[in-house]
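Cast an eye over this sequence plus tokens and explain the fold to me:
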Amino acid sequence: MPKIEENEVWFVVGSQSLYGSEVLETVARRSQEMASYINSNKNVPCKFVYKGTIKSNEEVTAIVKQANFDDNCVGIVAWCHTFSPSKMWINGLNLLQKPYCHFATQYNVEIPNEEIDMDFINLNQAAHGDREHGFIGARMRLHRKVIVGHWKDENVLKELGKWMRAAVGYKVSQNLSVVRFGDNMREVAVTEGDKIETQIKLGWQVNTWPVGDLVDEISKVTDEEVQVKVKEYRAEYQLDTDDLHAVNYQAKEEIAMERILQREHADAYTNTFQDLWGMEELPGIASQHLMARGYGYGAEGDWKTAAMVHIIKAMTQGLKGGSSFMEDYTYHYEKENGYSLGAHMLEVCPSIAAAKPRIEVHPLGIGGKDAPARLVFEGHEGKAVVISLIDMGGRLRLIVQDIECVKPIMEMPNLPVARVMWKIKPNLREGIRQWITAGGAHHTVLTYDATPEMLEDWAEMMDIEFVHLTQNTTTEELKKELHVNDLLWKLR
């Protein structure tokens, strides 16, 4: 996965030739100063690059064309230092294929009582210029982020940094390939979807590779390669089993799957316990370790969740909370003290572990294969969200629900899988009701790092529906929102 700091966000400043060369030189000097300051802030994950002051239709169009075809550029941030007549932006913005942010800021913090005169006003017209620029964005129905505040304000730069992370998610989405080892689990509805529409909308290539291809690749893995991989496992995790054959086989599976993924330039994959022909075990630690290294994974052929796992991991590089494939397994309906227990048969990412995971081997009880090695651990405490991307037939809906992960209230000594316990907002009963009402899937991405704002920005960039279930969401209002959304999206 490319490093997030290698991406660039281009800072384009609007002005015009009316004010003369001295003003334009000041604008350029200040813009470079602002870019340098923003680029050095810890909340800004990508390079923030000043690309010049735009003064004409031709200049806007040229910079947009450059941005569209520069693989390092993940988005454009525009600001108007002076008044920048926005008709000259139309042709360029019509061509824009990258995420777009309107940064409504100004160079100075305060109005200078003694200095303010007509020269000051002519130079410092951000309030004037940004409103002109805002109109053209609204008139053109642009997908855009509007960030308001002074460029040295820490909260403003946090907001800008989150938008940049969403822009990285947009870039990753446009170049994402998902390998499906076999098909979806039989008769399951929510893991299905329109792959053609998804590629048109999100850019994903989703294709199937026979499990036989994977089995053939497994047979080519050498004992030396297995021992190198197992050495990685021993360094990162606590070995708590005598069944080294199961651990070694997981190493073979990981090596083989990664070879195919790299060969196909893919960053996400699926499998299903219903299609393990020729394999000894369902991948357990193999999938968990690949996820910890940034690959996306979805069980039972769930290619939408697999893709979202990788996109979220790409967006949140450098953050420490972790993200994982997840599933609501069972509920604790104690009155006034309700919890959801998230887990899966095997495949929960150790990036969310509260302590060093243990390598254990236990029978799976499903799939008819040997007992697989897996990582067993508890997820750590903290605020998080669960995310579900569903196909509504004709459009995609991204559902995000706020949760609070807690230390499990019981030990569950006989549950041989990784698990996370959380409180759903606003409470268990209403949270479940709202999730089901919105059509949320049983598979999700659980992330401590991606915020609802970041995910809403990504949905805006991708032009898909966004539904956020919060502490303040009521089922009645949610139903109204979903009905209105249905109507609006059908009219588009």
About this structure: The mean pLDDT is 95. The first strand starts at residue 8 and ends at 14.
